């Protein structure tokens, strides 16, 4: 009996390692296809269940960190656009007043 459990545990570990490899491939491939990184998109691309993505601590932290980076990048990009738009408005007002 104990030998059977050892075999199962090894199988679980091997599948987890293989799933992590698939997730890493998906993470590197999604930005090249202009897809956002999310649990759903990684699950669809890699074929790994969302349950694994959420329950595997290492994988979950990696995805959450990448999502935070994407959100910050988008916020910075919008702020830059808002600055240029506001600058344009100020210049137009100055030209009208002169």
Report on the structure:
The chain is an all-alpha fold. The chain has one domain (2-97). The chain is 85% helix and 0% strand. It contains four helices and no strands. The protein has helices spanning 2-29, 39-46, 50-55, 57-97. Helix 1 crosses helix 2 (39-46). The longest helix has 41 residues, at 57-97. The radius of gyration is 23 Å and the shape is rod-shaped. The N and C termini lie far apart (90 Å). The mean pLDDT is 83.
Task: Report Rg.
Answer: 23 Å
Low-confidence parts lasting 5 or more residues at pLDDT below 50? none
Distance between the termini: 90 Å
What coarse outline follows from CA principal-axis ratios? rod-shaped
Largest sheet: none
Describe the SSE topology.
Layout: H1 2-29, H2 39-46, H3 50-55, H4 57-97
Short summary:
The protein is mainly alpha-helical. It is 85% helix and 0% strand. The protein contains four helices and no strands.
Key phrases:
single chain; 98 residues; 85% helix; mainly alpha
